[in-house]
Write a structure and sequence with these properties.
It is a single chain. The chain is α+β, with helices and mostly antiparallel strands and 303 residues long. The protein has one domain. It has ten helices and 14 strands. Strands 7, 10, 11, 12, 13 and 14 form a six-stranded antiparallel β-sheet that branches. β3 and β4 form a beta hairpin.
Length: 303
């Protein structure tokens, strides 16, 4: 039986570091995977820090073809929406997410990981996240209201036992920059219609009030009459002048994540998510997060 990387479900951590790497020219993917698998943190929680690792799906398929779900692929082209709108694709080879209660521990663990990978991979992006006002995002609304409980989340996020990639997950990682000045100039009722929820307590507004352009309406995915959920681990990021949301969404089915984006962009039915007029996607990548056991196969024991 396979087990998920523990950090996927480690709620309550207030400090986060997201590191993205590309394989160095001439380096075999297996070499980088061995380095990652030999770190302690991807396997267990240690010193108050969780570490989750994900790989470009095509890269992981080269290294471990039996431990990847069928038809999973990277964010290899932009999502094209209506009226010229698009979400960018910025796919890298490795995503490393370090999270913990104390930023100094996250900082130290991230530095150690960067040093360990120095010979095999180039750090191309690093973003620090943090919690804001009891799990609100920088729009002022509560984030993750639709998240399933931890009792149900593994059923939503993880590949089932007996299937290729069991206990692994597909994760979508995006950075969204907020136009906070324009957003905050809106009356609260217009903000609520844009999100589709009340600002004070995150109660979902009726469809006739929020309308089909709201964020809730765009991101609710129905399949055979049943709502399909994902497991979100979003956090704010940035500085007082430039800031936004790191979207981190886990799913056992990449198609759910991809359809959310096409619906937000208006590619499915011509209806664009109103929130995209106040937040701009500046990156986008899919990674496959393998199980602990699938990673440990490649670990090199310390002498």
């Amino acid at each position: 039986m396979h087990t998920a990387q523990s950090g996927v479900f480690a709620l309550g951590t207030g400090s986060h570091s997201h590191l993205e790497f590309d394989l160095k020219a001439g380096v075999e993917p297996l070499t980088m995977v061995r380095v990652i698998a030999s770190l302690r943190a991807p396997s267990i929680t240690t010193g108050g820090v969780n570490m989750v690792v994900g790989f470009r799906p095509e890269l992981w398929a080269r290294v471990s073809p039996d431990q990847v779900p069928h038809r999973v692929e990277g964010f290899n082209s932009p999502v094209q929406g209506v009226d010229g709108y698009a979400m960018p694709a910025k796919q890298y080879d490795l995503w490393l997410w370090v999270a913990g209660h104390a930023y100094e521990r996250v900082f130290d663990a991230a530095r150690e990981a960067i040093a360990a990978l120095e010979a095999t991979a180039v750090l191309v992006d690093e973003t620090d996240g943090w919690t804001y006002k009891d799990n609100r995002d920088l729009t002022g609304f509560i984030d993750g209201t639709e998240n399933p409980s931890l009792a149900v989340a593994p059923e939503v996020a993880l590949i089932p036992d007996g299937k290729p990639g069991a206990a692994g997950s597909v994760v979508l990682v995006q950075k969204w920059i907020h136009d906070s000045r324009t957003w905050e100039a809106l009356p609260v009722i217009e903000q609520e219609k844009t999100i589709g929820r009340t600002k004070a307590d995150s109660a979902e507004l009726p469809e006739e009030i929020r309308g089909p352009h709201s964020h809730v309406s765009r991101t609710v995915i129905q399949q055979n009459g049943e709502e399909q959920h994902i497991f979100r681990r979003n956090t704010p990021f940035g500085t007082p002048s430039t800031h936004g949301t790191i979207f981190v969404g886990f799913s056992a089915d990449q198609k759910i994540l991809a359809r959310m984006l096409t619906r937000m962009a208006g590619a499915e039915d011509g209806i664009r998510d109103t929130l995209t007029y106040y937040a701009t996607a500046v990156s986008g990548a899919y990674y496959f997060v393998p199980s602990i056991q699938a990673l440990r196969v490649f670990a090199v024991e310390a002498e």
